[in-house]
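Support case: flavin mononucleotide complex. Customer-provided input:
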Amino acid sequence: MDFFELVQKRKSVRKFESKAVPMSAIEKIMNAARLAPSWRNRQSWKFILVTDSALKKQLIQCTDSFNQAWLGGEFAIVVACGDPRRSGVRDGLPYFMVDAAIAMEHLVLAATELGLGACWISAFNEEKVKKLLEIPEHIRVVALSPLGYPAKKDSLAGAIARKVVKSKNRKPLNEVYTLNKWE
Ligand SMILES: Cc1cc2nc3c(=O)[nH]c(=O)nc-3n(C[C@H](O)[C@H](O)[C@H](O)COP(=O)(O)O)c2cc1C
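Agent response - structure generated as follows:
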């Protein structure tokens, strides 16, 4: 798929077919994440793919009730982690967040290219996720995402989310960038 078609095609997927994703696809997706740029190339991220159904159920319990309403059918839940010790801070901006976010979006776009779906999730209890997955104290959990084959029809929660956040809406280009100065 052409890159511009790919970014048009990507959308948050909130319902999945209960179908396994082959390891070859997982490896391609994770390799796309691996190739992401990062602060001083320190690659401060690490991803945990939760496929075990009992563990997945417990992980879903660590998210807020809205996300709990639609999670569950996916093949895996990706847990994107960042190591602040391996990245930089500039004027209070922690770059491990940026590192993890870029790698995560590589992952999401690679998944889309392979006909899979994902959805960024930020509404979760980090302490609970860390305890469940035995993530070391100094590591931060930046985001979660389900990963799997999209179902033909969206979940009710997905349809509501799309409506509430007007997920198709984007600012017009003239509000996205200017030339030379802020205005
Ligand atoms: C940082 C971040 C956090 C998000 N958290 C959630 C979330 O907790 N639950 C959810 O359903 N969607 C979440 N989303 C998805 C956004 O709602 C979605 O990207 C936006 O509405 C645009 O829709 P689209 O992704 O289908 O283009 C998140 C997206 C981002 C980038």
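The mean pLDDT is 97.

Case will auto-close in a few days if no follow-up is received.
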